[in-house]
TrEMBL record:
This is Sodium/potassium-transporting ATPase subunit beta-1-interacting protein. Pfam families: NKAIN. GO terms for biological process: regulation of sodium ion transport. Keywords: Cell membrane, Membrane, Transmembrane, Transmembrane helix. It comes from Emberiza fucata.
Length: 188
């Protein structure tokens, strides 16, 4: 549900890189759930590997919005340089008041306006950082759960006994008669 919520807000902000990452995440989560329900450890292993990638992606998003290592939250990196859109939260955050001023006099920009945002209770970059931090927390819990489920499934596969071959005390025991009894004549 958290990934779906994040997907909605990334769609509202036209942030194409996070939209694609969220879409892949949703598909892999569904695959992991299917693997858990259908007892398919390979699907769960794929989910566990994806959680490592997902944590890395969210760390990148945190670094992006906190402008760590030369990254700039004002760059068009998350929109693939298609547009100048930013996070939806930049204009619609808690307590934000949005003011538009039409840009008249500049040819070709008749439908555009200058938008200023004031009075935000929390800057949008911190909201995005909280979203990514929450995704990391969920991914780490999912990773631990996936490892546990895979270990349970593989343990069940190893303990399956076809004809009592691995079990030192089988549930059933075939009593074989000694070979000398097979050659004895039976008297009536």
């Amino acid at each position: 549900l958290a990934a779906l919520e994040r997907q909605v807000f990334d769609f509202l902000g036209y942030q194409w890189a996070p939209i694609l990452a969220n879409f892949l995440h949703i598909i892999i989560v569904i695959l992991g759930l299917f693997g858990t329900i259908q007892y398919r450890p390979r699907y769960i292993v794929v989910y566990a590997i994806w959680t490592a990638v997902w944590v890395t992606w969210n760390i990148f998003i945190i670094c992006f919005y906190l402008e760590v290592g030369g990254l700039s939250k004002d760059s068009e990196l998350l929109t693939f340089n298609i547009s100048r859109h930013q996070s939806w939260w930049s204009e619609n955050g808690p307590g934000c008041v949005r003011k538009e001023a039409p840009m008249s006099g500049i040819k070709g920009l008749d439908n555009h306006s200058y938008i200023s945002v004031i009075g935000c209770a929390l800057e949008y970059r911190y909201i995005e950082v909280m979203h990514s931090s929450f995704q990391i927390l969920i991914a780490l819990v999912g990773f631990v759960y996936a490892c546990y489920v895979v270990s349970v499934f593989t343990e069940e596969e190893d303990s399956f006994d076809f004809i009592g071959g691995f079990d030192p005390f089988p549930l059933y025991h075939v009593n074989e008669k000694p070979t000398n009894l097979l050659f004895k004549q039976t008297y009536l």
